[in-house]
Amino acid sequence: MIRSLLLPLLLSPMLCAPSMAQSRDPAGVTTKAGAQAMLADLMKVEKKIQHMYPDALACTVAVGRKGRPAGASGVIVSEDGLVMTCAHVIESTGDDVEIYLSDGRKLRGRALGSHASVDAAMIQILDKGKYPFAEVRRSSELVRNEWCVMMGHPQMLQKGRSAPLRLGRFLDGNKRRRGFVRTSCTMMGGDSGGPLFDLEGRVVGINSNINVGLTQNNHVSTDVFVDAWDRMLKGERWGGSRHVHSQDRVILGMNVEKTDEGRLRIARVQRYASAEAAGIKVGDILVGLAGKSVDDPLDIGEWLKGKKAGDKLPLELLRGDEEFEVQVRLRSARQVSAAMLRARARARGSRGPRGSRRGSRGRSSRSGNASRSRWVGTGAGNPFRRKGKQPFDGPYLEEVRAALDEVVAKASSSVAPVYVGKIQVAMATAVRKHGYLLTKLSEIEGQKAIVRIDAKDHPVRILLRFPAYDLA
């Protein structure tokens, strides 16, 4: 099972980071030897993950407050059942919690200490026994682009489904980001408290919160736990809440990346958020902030501390050869959500209930040959769309494509996007001849869905349902 899961993971946008082996000809084009070397590196990564996965799964747990569903995660880090998790998973020191192991056992647990400012907390399993556990490694030992694996229970613990595995890279170098590290492992609600592993199966972070974009997955640094280990064991609770889930927090809505020249480039602008409303576009260069030059994306976060909806953020930008200033009026998470819902309501018109609450970005469908990109079957939202059409076009994207073209050529021709109305809600994979497809049940249940193949729409109907795996 794990081998079949890894190929889709290896196709994710985090591979835009540098490979361990690259080979170019004098014209700067990836050579076949370079592509083969990269593919060989990826296969080594796959073997390492296959080796560490069983032990990582065994020590990854689901966490629930007593009498409530298990809506969060954790990881066992000692033989006697000490669990690392997030502060926002528990309410207060001494709380009774329930721990669910991967083998189905339900155990009693008690909340120990927590450092709320950096979202770190510990739990002790009360049922006596010897438990599978993972070694802890300091996050500060990680290097930029090092591979990592994230686990947890997205959308809470589900019967018949083990903790999914997501592969990514460590993005921050060896610097401490105020108690957090950042990866390209895609996080969802319910993953909170779950472990981030290196490829040796050591815990290097704890899943905490999600920001805008696929590269904004924040994990509590294990340095925080190691440095405050004794205080947490004693049940101390300190630090103020970060309000990471507050609907009143401001959403600037833009991702900034540092170019090879050291400039700050706007890599992504979130729909309906503050930056888009101010007219900021992907490709703009951030020159200044509040009248001061800026060369570190973290400076933006520092400025946003304590800000509320309606406050203004003065930014100096460069677009082409033109330098200009914008006054970004900040919007709250609540305002952004409301704007998104209004836009979707306008797009739906009289079509009836919307197709999905997940995976939809309000994009209208593409027509003609727009879907016939380099790899057949790619749709809106797929990270391997044509270069220049989405924010994952790094200098290494062509190397990634060259390395994987031969591997995915046949498989990708069997994949097509699924739509409800004009909103793409999922992808479908052909598993038998004559139009038998496998897709996500919850996205099309009760809806009039279509599948788009070679720019033609075909209605679909559900023949079989597998609710435990959310498949149809």
Secondary structure layout:
Elements: H1 2-10, H2 32-59, E1 60-65, E2 72-76, E3 82-85, E4 96-100, E5 106-115, E6 120-125, E7 147-151, E8 165-169, E9 180-183, E10 195-197, E11 203-210, E12 217-221, H3 222-227, H4 229-233, E13 237-238, E14 250-251, E15 254-258, E16 264-269, H5 274-277, E17 285-289, E18 292-293, H6 298-304, E19 312-319, E20 322-329, E21 331-332, H7 333-348, H8 397-412, E22 415-420, E23 423-432, E24 436-438, H9 441-444, E25 449-453, E26 456-459
Parallel strand pairs: 5-13
Antiparallel strand pairs: 1-2, 1-4, 2-3, 3-6, 4-5, 5-6, 7-8, 7-10, 9-12, 10-11, 11-12, 14-21, 15-16, 16-17, 17-18, 17-19, 19-20, 22-23, 22-25, 23-24, 25-26
